[in-house]
Write the structure tokens for this entry.
Amino acid sequence: AVDAAGNASSWSEARVFTLTFQNQPGFAATTASATPGFSWYAVRGARGYRLEVKPVVEEGNTATREYSVYLGTVTSHVIPAIKALDPGAYQWRLRVYTAAGSEETPWRLLVVLPPAPVLDTPDNGSVHPGVTVELNWFPAAGAARYEIQADNNNNFRTPEIDYEFTEGPVTTKEVTFPFAGGFYWRVRAYNYLGNPGAWSAARYLRLTTP
């Protein structure tokens, strides 16, 4: 900065930034899709691009699949279903080929979330004597833990039960409801980073006084 007398201040602390032609997904994006789409800005003189996707190497990561494809001069690509990614943390980058050689972008983080769990028992519309019920669901890929919600309203705005597991990816829980009556319940999975996936479809359960 320069004051009215023309005196200049000291320089600010320097910062480093990297220019990239990557567009979407943004850095550290999450997606529920196992076949995410990628896009980038066209590089002048490009003869083609290579997209690379691979798992982040760190403890707890459930991602296992790698994907690499040469794409010509297009500026977008969707991973095909036959090459679908499993849930977990990935990194992706692009390599551009020109007459002068090739250059690559930095790696960019992308997290594929666990899918919505599928509920097991009780069946939808079940009637149960008492207010203590064992809820069961099938494992969701990439789950590190789960959360259960139960509400007497199917919008789940003020759930009577909202329980997040801390003891790992168990798929059964004995739950004591606060009173008898009709309840909707649902489950969602969290990955090892603490990112939640989508909620399961809700089921209805009626509790009666024994």
